Amino acid sequence: MNSVIYHICTWWLVTVSTGEGARAVPLAGHVGFDSMPDQLVNKSVNHGFCFNILCVGETGLGKSTLMDTLFNTKFEGEPTQHNQPGVTLKSNTYELQESNVRLKLTVVNTVGFGDQINKEDSYKSIVEFIDAQFEAYLQEELKIKRTLHSYHDTRIHACLYFIAPTGHSLKSLDLVTMKKLDSKVNIIPIIAKSDAISKSELAKFKIKITSELVSNGVQIYQFPTDDESVAEINSTMNSHLPFAVVGSTEEVKIGNKMVKARQYPWGTVQVENENHCDFVKLREMLIRVNMEDLREQTHTRHYELYRRCKLEEMGFKDTDPDSKPFSLQETYEAKRNEFMGELQKKEEEMRQMFVQRVKEKEAELKEAEKELHEKFDRLKKLHQDEKKKLEEKKKTLDDELNMFKQKKTAAELLQNQAQQAGGSTTLKRDKERKKQTNASVYPL
């Protein structure tokens, strides 16, 4: 807060004392415009401030714990698992107050970063999220009726990049991600859980990280040294990057006071002891000394770069080929005509494509119709042949049936004749037997 007041006062004094064409006129008495810095400070305090932090790092490096330790509070949130299918960004906004200063703090965490087997596209969701915040602010700026004074600025002001304490070198994932983010956000690299390696290894690890960042062209945030009031401390702190930090919300009694620390069987690591870690340096540089500069760098450097590229893509320019001011109306009309021309061209292409597709479909339908007719003719002929065969079979069966009936009739006739002949023979035999019987009974 003191840094903010100092910057405002310095800006006002420099503006008044070094204005071009200004003539110094002594005042006969006190007027009161020397209270302008106080008015600006009061207005800013009443309005409040916002600050947005992006925490990038693999799961389990203590990102949430460090945020709790930095702001001396307990933010809501649950530990994430290592089974995320992709990288998602989770944003939480909190209202904090210290003395009479209100701060709207937004903490964005990268859930699932580094948990996938294929980490090739892990950075894309982070880049898209940062660009989305820039785009939202740009859309608010381009509105006819703007409300920037009450707009909740969600642009990322600081990116804390958590590096695993391997003691060897940066991972390819870390280098690729930081390279993609350095033109979009202020990157502050920190070595998480630095109590996992010894001091000598930690010093070598810092040198190795710095060397790899330089050799790969990664631009990290440098604390500003142009302000005389903070030039010395910022210059010193730049040499300590990346900060080796330890986070803990647990308090341990050391001597006669309670301090935040991590207790191990071999000893205790005090979070706020500069001989144990760089947590105090990070807190001083991030919150107390350079918070306003981080906000300013986000707006004047990263957002302006995004805005310029976006407007150039839309066809807007500052000057025409003759170095004259470029009319916004002319740009709009030219872009509109270009868009309408492209639209008509695409419409014509789509119409031709539609006609072509219709012709192709008609040809397909005609071919299908022809095949259906041929199939119908084949089936019709086959039906006729089958019908003819059936009729022939029916005729044959009828002939056989008639022949069978004739044979049956002849057989029945023969059977009746045989029965009649058999009957007369039997009668004749009975008469002869009767005669014989009578002759034996009554002999002559």
Automatic annotation (TrEMBL):
Coiled coil: 329-407
GO molecular function, one term: GTP binding
Biased composition regions of type Low complexity, renumbered to the chain: 411-421
Top-rank taxon: Eukaryota
Stored PROSITE patterns: G_SEPTIN (PS51719)
Signal peptide stretch: 1-24
CDD domains with a match to the protein in the record: CDC_Septin (cd01850)
Domain Septin-type G: 47-313
Record's keyword annotation contains Plastid: no
Stretches the record annotates as Disordered: 411-444
InterPro entries: G_SEPTIN_dom (IPR030379), P-loop_NTPase (IPR027417), Septin (IPR016491)
Keyword terms, alphabetized: Coiled coil, GTP-binding, Nucleotide-binding, Signal
SUPFAM superfamilies linked to this entry: P-loop containing nucleoside triphosphate hydrolases
The keyword Acyltransferase is assigned to this record: no
Protein family (similarity comment): Belongs to the TRAFAC class TrmE-Era-EngA-EngB-Septin-like GTPase superfamily. Septin GTPase family.
Record protein name field: Septin
Lineage: Eukaryota, Metazoa, Chordata, Craniata, Vertebrata
Gene: septin6
